[in-house]
Amino acid sequence: MGLNGKVLFSGGLRESEIDLARSMQTGQTEIVPGQYYTQKTPSYFRADIGVYYKINRRRATHSFLLEVQNVTNRDNYYFSYFDKSKGEIVRVNQLGILPNISYRIDFHQ
After folding, report:
1. Which sequence spans correspond to the domains of the chain?
2. Strand ranges across the sheet with 44-56
């Protein structure tokens, strides 16, 4: 039986500035010419925790894992795009808390 954890922190990535006026004319996301990767996105932070249980057998090891990603439920920025139906630039965030259950078999001789 065991416990694990992980903390991720990254400075904001770069993305291109969206030209709202041109995007409204064309109906799709348009980038300001010459402004490629000039905007800095917000910093990324995520903390994960997990609990696992292993059963060792003669020819295989069985592992059961329960992991919870983003336990702090932080709204991390993902990307922005022009939404034609709203007529505005929309910001999309990544998922909040994400539970993950897995089972693994490692075969050995």
Report:
1. 66-99
2. 2-10, 44-56, 60-69, 98-107
